[in-house]
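User: My advisor, Dr. K., asked me to get a structural model of this assembly before our group meeting. I'm new to this, so sorry if the format is off. These are the inputs:
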Amino acid sequence: MSSTTDTAHHGHDDHHHGPAYGITRWLFTTNHKDLGVLYMSFGLLMFFIGGAMAMVIRAELFQPGLNVVDPYFFNQMTTMHALVMIFGAVMPALTGLANWLIPVQIGAPDMALPRINNWAFWLLPAGFVLLLATLFMPGGGPAGGWTMYPPLVLQLGDAFPFLIFAVHILGISSIMGSINIVATVLNMRAPGMTLMKMPLFVWTWLITAFLMIAVMPVLAGAVTMLLTDQYFGTSFFDAAGGGDPVMFQHIFWFFGHPEVYILILPAFGIVSAILPTFSRKPLFGYSSMVYATAAIAFLSFIVWAHHMFTVGLPLAGQLFFMFATMLVAVPTGVKIFNWMATMWRGSMTFETPMLFSIAFVVLFTVGGLSGVMLALAPVDLQYHDTYFVVAHFHYVLVSGTVFAIMAAVYYWLPKWTGHMYDEKLGKIHFWVSAISVNVLFFPQHFLGLAGMPRRIPDYALQFAEFNMISSIGGFVFGFSQLLFLYIIIKCVRGGEKATDQVWDGAQGLEWTLPSPAPYHTFDTPPVVR
Amino acid sequence: MSDETTSKRHTGIVTRLVLVTVGMFGFGFALVPLYDVICDITGLNGVVDLQAADYDAGAEVDPDRKVTVEFVATVNDNRPWEFSPEVRRMEVTPGELYTVTFKTTNEQSEDTVSQIVPSVAPGRAGRHFRKTECFCFTEQPFEAGENRDMSVTFFIDPRLDDRTQTVTLSYTLFDLGAGDEPDIDPEDAQLHAGSQ
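Assistant: The format is fine. Below is the predicted structure of the whole assembly, which you can bring to the meeting.
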């Protein structure tokens, strides 16, 4: 935007020009739609890199014994898979959706801080170059788990400072993105768009952004303490100097638990947009959805120690964290019942986004229920660090968040590209993914209950069958995502012309725009009644 | 709304959010002393004294009450040390003084300094395990190959709850090398030493 009225007028005319051409468009863009595309493309790239690491893990676990890779490399794969998927795939994909959708859903011309937006995005590739480069260093990449517990993480070689600085950079990127989202939502809503009229996706992202601003700096602090322990002789976590390694776990999970809700809350918003469209009914219990989201966000700050039941917490601590954790099931249950009530007696149709959303509701609930089991302090001693935990968080993250992101891509892709995606291929992609993800993760519950530890490249013979089934599911799930990539590319390049409303039950400001949405939208704010 | 008021409102909100970010970064570090204070107030983490306790010889002692005390000695990081207690376990009467010796040998061909950090399990027994003398109160310099018996004199505070039948005292020996490692902060170490 220009500073004087005179040039502001010319600037206004410029808005009707399209984007710049060539690589500079993407390097220097401050347009929220371009940045949304960049974020989502980056997320997709990282999804395949992290997925390739998962394929290595499942190939190693296909049969007992050390078959494919050496154990140290296996450990690098489990660690890097988590870091890449969390910070590289899911968070950028969700931020990309926020960039593309929040301005058009609240009737704003762009994000509040377009230059910050550009910078926040371009920090991500920088951070991941640092992180992924460690795999090619002497001593290899991080291998002590994504949670970076000392003293193990301090035994990392040359990769250690790269890991720490990568986490710093990714954290700064997330914080800048979050500040941008909060400023946009609070300051740039169209006239008449009151907070309680905002689409739920905007609400969940607003709350998520506050969570990120609150906890990302705590993670930055924790890894800074690791850095100074290693190189500057402090003893935050060093028992010889009077520190306590368990304290790292407290600080890490004070960040880590809100972080898992950062990963899931925007997914709740996506599903709350899609289910009403294809049920042709308004969302059931809108305001209870908003309050439930806020309640989940609040509870996320007081449940962290349920990740640490085995460190020797005092009884009072175990009880508090057990009950506080189980309390999370209440607002989450409110959401699940609201979604069911939204679908109840609706005129439902089952296009691909709806299929992914329904699968989200069902499979997220499976993951939520295993979460309640893990919350029980007395039984968690058995489940801790087993494949039961792995099954739990993959149900909520893969068949939860990742399914919701895929649903969002199918749902809004016609608005972004102006073309309908190939519905038949979309349905094939859904069914292959939905079946294989269960073949992949459901047996891991049984493995965990039987005592198979996570992050170990070999296992006892009695675990062989379930691991083979899980690996087969893993390969099918992994390779079926290439179909997803193909469907997206095909849709970008052409296809049946999409109408403005795209879906006949779709409500909201973004569906009043032409498809594809023009480069600049809502230069004149719409009026919301 | 004009551009000017919008950008003013952005500045206001961004300033506040940046302050929150900086504040939360500070809060991460504030958790460190907070952790100590909470452990200290509640005794949650099993506080072990790193200062000599006063022994009151005239206190009333129930001679029939027995508590088993176990001793564990570990060398951190598999450094070349010999470190083991003279006895593995003993029956003690709360309120009476006992002394146990730990055989310690520096098997390296260089002079070095060790710091031995105590820990008591269960954690609730930590504040009732009182030491009047202990080699863990200070750093212990060892010459190359030096062999030394080090002793700890302790009593169990009779206020220890009845359900605690066994108390384990564990020592971990940290090799600090030639002594260029950070000096131990006794207050900090006292608070953290009981962690399990």
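One thing worth pointing out at the meeting: The domain at 67-192 of chain B is CATH 2.60.370.10 (Ctag/Cox11 (Pfam 04442)).

User: Perfect, thanks a lot.
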